[in-house]
Amino acid sequence: MAVPVPELSLEAVLELHLRAPLLESDAALAAVADTRDREQRLRRFLPPQIVRRLDRGFARSYTVHPSTARALYAIARALRPAVTFETGTYWGYSTAILAAAARDEQFGVVHTFDLYPHAGKHIPPSLMPWVRLHRGQAATDSMPAVLHTVRPSLFFQDSVHDYQGVLAELRVVQPCLASGAVVLFHDFVVDGVLQAAIDGLPEFFVARIAGDDPQQLGIAIAPGARLTR
Ligand SMILES: C[S@@+](CC[C@H](N)C(=O)[O-])C[C@H]1O[C@@H](n2cnc3c(N)ncnc32)[C@H](O)[C@@H]1O
Fold it and tell me: Which residues surround ligand 1 with Cβ inside 6 Å?
């Protein structure tokens, strides 16, 4: 059964909770739009068994919907995080969006973690100065070493999408979050993801962000995350 949480528009999240204007970038979305188009074409024309043989990571994964990409960009611009964490790099679509926000602020770095050894191969080279790739290990194994030196203000969770997996990542990251941090969850449509957000971040305000993405984007906002830009 679906766990009830409020649903807010992106505008309301920014205005009421982050006290920041909605900054958008067609250029940032356009820079990675062809990656998503290529992915969709491959899926349309290749049978699933060929996709699996070509690339097991590709067979299991999807880039986020452009509506979620828009929200990632706007929230990253609003928060202006010195450090962003992302689990689930895949081809690098959402990583590129988060990196574009850092580039447009001229501030911050995106650490992105993926099991997949070729993750991030479609990130535009011009955005790589804002990206640190951590590949080939489960995020729960590769994040702790990085968390010895940095405190993320923004965490986008998009690797595993089951209750135990999401909770395990939160247990690694949550103690090291910067004060006033924001955590975003893809696949919030999955009850286990939502429940892990509630259980793993008990002090946080948790909501669903309205949008066109059928997989849905969730947000958890730490107490005191209100910003004045
Ligand atoms: C849904 S895709 C991420 C899509 C990406 N965020 C985007 O929008 O472009 C999920 C990715 O998580 C990776 N993954 C799965 N389990 C993982 C784990 N335990 N640790 C790190 N990465 C994992 C997969 O290899 C895959 O590339």
Answer: 57, 61-64, 87-88, 90-91, 93-94, 113-116, 119, 138-139, 158-160
